[in-house]
Amino acid sequence: MKKITMFHGRECPHCHIMQHIVDKLIEEGANIEKLEVWHDENNAKEMRKFSEVIMPVCGGDLGVPAFLDKEGNRAICGELSYIELKEWINKE
């Protein structure tokens, strides 16, 4: 099963909305790792490692929430619907 990383910020309102969607997908079997990047420098460094993949889909910045498929070398950014995120995760 492919592993997805969710980069988020503790006080980010869009991230809070996405947390509920991500939790539902995890309950359904999705393999999603959550990394808080605003207050955890190690997680922020991990996000920066993938800046070339994340920045183009986040308007040229390392925005949150950002979802990363390391294996597929792809990312998606922002507040998404349950269906949008599920389809993106399942896309090959």
Describe the protein in words:
Helix content is 40%, strand content 22%. The protein has four helices and four strands, in the order E-H-E-H-H-E-E-H. It has helices at residues 13-27, 41-49, 51-54, 82-90; strands spanning 3-8, 31-36, 66-69, 74-77. It has a four-stranded mixed β-sheet with strand order 2-1-3-4. The chain is globular. The N and C termini lie close together (12 Å). The model has no long low-confidence stretch (mean pLDDT 96).
Q: Summary?
A:
The protein contains 4 helices and 4 strands, in the order E-H-E-H-H-E-E-H. The protein is of the alpha+beta class.
Global structural class: alpha+beta
Gyration radius over CA: 12 Å
Distance between the ends: 12 Å
Estimate the global geometry from the Cα principal axes: globular
Give the strand line-up of the largest sheet.
2-1-3-4
Give the beta-strand count: 4
Average predicted local confidence, pLDDT:
96
> Which range best describes the helical content: under 10%, 10-25%, 25-40%, 40-55%, 55-70% or over 70%?
40-55%
Describe the largest sheet: 4 strands, mixed
Order of helices and strands: EHEHHEEH
- The oligomeric state is single chain
Low-confidence stretches: none
Percent of sequence in beta strands: 15-25%
Number of helices: 4
